[in-house]
Amino acid sequence: MRALVTGASEGIGGAVCRRLVADARKRGDEAAILLTVRSLRPEVEALVADLRDQGARAEVATGDLADPDTPQRVVERALEVCGGLDALVSNAGMMGPAPLADLTLEGWDRLYAVNTRATWLLAKAAHAALADSRGAVVAVSSMSGMQPHAGGGAYSSSKAALIMLVRQMAQEWGPQGIRANVVSPGMTRTPLTERIYADEEVAARRARLVPLGRVALPEDIAAAVAFLAGPDAAYVTGENLCVDGGYSSSIMSHVPGLPKRAPQGTDSGKDHP
Length: 273
Hints:
Blueprint: E1 2-6, H1 12-27, E2 32-37, H2 42-53, E3 57-62, H3 70-82, E4 87-90, H4 105-133, E5 136-140, H5 155-173, E6 179-185, H6 194-197, H7 200-209, H8 218-229, E7 240-243
Parallel strand pairs: 1-2, 1-4, 2-3, 4-5, 5-6, 6-7
Helix pairs in contact: 1-8, 3-4, 4-5
């Protein structure tokens, strides 16, 4: 598995790197990964060291993906490090909460540059290498790209655009053997969101909203990404896999006056004498 993973700090990106390496080892394959981050931090260096300890070739590149020159540069570096590419995982993203009436043009453009345009430029730069390997593009969107997020500024629309971009990519590049899919995480507990879940009441309320009864961990999202990037998804393209424990589909369960879900272990059929 030769992969470029953007936004690969601790959290979803780090979990993706670890899962790709672990899966490659199970298949008896070598693993080579270029991680990209905006700036080098101790936790990123620790991640690279951990991947190397697992037997992978791992290097890190820094750069701001809002800069239109960065995607080409990091793809070229990935080809040097990995000797080709089997997977591009476009995970880097950002938020910029603001009411639309107050959102600045700069704020709008930056979110689209990172959340949408960067995936296009990365994939465009990696196109030839992915065609050679009949490889895969996996972009990380959000359930907010499927449902409007009031007060989220350009986040929802940029993530929705990302989903459509990848679906178009799947259609145009399928004949070259390139698969392109999206993973849309729901509520996920990561180092960036830990301040929210540090409030035990908020954490419990969020968990109760999810039909599976818990908030996702980075490893839950990484498993979906690794599946779509790997050989088990060889006939899957143009899909958006929402990994949210059923939350996005649960709206009807919150409507007052409707029957509630039967508690686990109860019989919801006919009454018994």
